[in-house]
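This part of the workshop introduces the protein records we will be handling. Each record describes a single protein and holds just a pair of labelled lines. Instead of coordinates, the fold is spelled out as a row of discrete tokens. To make this concrete, we reproduce a full record directly below:
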Amino acid sequence: MATVELRFSAQPEHVRTARLVAAAVARRAGVEEALLDEVRLAVGEACSRAVGLHRVNALTAPVRVVLTEEEKTFSIEVGDEVPGPAEAVSGITAALDPDADGEDEMGLAVISGLVDDVEVTTGASGGTIRMSWPVSGATEVA
């Protein structure tokens, strides 16, 4: 299992760099070329969400992105340090949360539309959006 970790200050201009790094690592991991735009867009949405949460809450902690290559999947976790209630929900459930603000809800809806396997977790130490894609040579089990 290979892992790349990226941390950046919560500035919107760093989201582009995170997207580029995610696409490059995904390509190297064996994610199909046709899915790389989805990876870029999903990471951009998740990072923009984390940057926005940090800025609204005046946090100086960095946004973290962990890219992990496993045997059959490539996963990306985008984490923020904004405390929230402890829960884990699938992407579409999080996107339909009536308590979420409009911008947050829209970002999660975009992510859940791009990524089949997504989970949003929150807790006392912050939140994480975990997304994963199959890698070439990995067969999906129905």
Notes: Residues 91-98 have pLDDT under 50 and may be disordered. DSSP finds four helices and six strands in the chain.
